[in-house]
Amino acid sequence: MSKSILIAAAFCVICPLSLVAAEDDAENDSSAVLPKNYAGKYILATNTLSPDKTIGVIYPKANVCEDESNKSCKDFVVQVKPFKILGTLVTKSPYFRNRNHGAISGEWSKDGAAALITLESKWGPGDIFLVEFKGGQLTRATNLLGKIHDLLAPDYRKAMNVRSKEEVDFLFESEDSPMVEFKGSTIEVHAKATTDPKHIPGEKAWEGKLDAIWDIPAAKFTSQKVQRLFAGVRKDE
């Protein structure tokens, strides 16, 4: 680990370990394996590579995303060799080189047929995608964090007296254990969400938790339990 990453790890006392690890892995990311017309704009995230090193995610260099409306400011799922774009990670906040509080990481199922691609934000994951493959082709990409968000949103709206479906403002926090994890043909979910990660006294806040199972072949939750952890005005701790 480089000196700069050691310093970041020492002072970032609230940063998830996965984010520090992702920053470390980013030092090994490279454009060398990409075709010339992509190498000038994109970088291969080595920690998203499949076990056989044939599939991964490429992300833009910082200058490409100076204007985030730029159509090239996207994260792509690719076949590495021969190079081929398999799909796009559809997100409002794509990861790009040196994005503030950002990182990208991947976890693959044991059979190599699916991967969980996480785009980190300041407090925890900003997006988690479940990408599925068959015969080297991307067959389905699901914004799993979006599905998790939708299960928690009704309790948030009720607790915070929010009527509009669009007016949902909470984020996810990283825990010591993974939020999402492969368990055979399912994904186990243990997610914690909050409107107030700093626990500011006097603030009206909400915290919720979801424990659920996502069935990969069926593309749906087969069990789900939403628990309200807190709702009200913070008191001095």
**What's the gyration radius in Å?**
19 Å
Judged by helices, strands and strand pairing, the structural class is alpha+beta
Question: What kind of sheet is the major sheet?
Answer: 5 strands, antiparallel
Question: What portion of the residues fall into strands of 2 or more residues?
Answer: 35-45%
> If you average the pLDDT, what whole number results?
88
Fraction of residues in helices?
A: 10-25%
What sequence of helices (H) and strands (E) makes up the elements? HHHEEEEEEEEHEEEEE
Distance between the termini: 36 Å
Which residue ranges are poorly predicted, with pLDDT under 50 across at least 5 consecutive positions? Answer: 1-24
Question: Can you summarize this structure?
Answer:
The protein is of the alpha+beta class and 237 residues long. Helix content is 17%, strand content 39%. Strands 9, 10, 11, 12 and 13 form a five-stranded antiparallel β-sheet that branches. It has a four-stranded antiparallel β-sheet with strand order 1-2-3-4, with no helix packed on it.
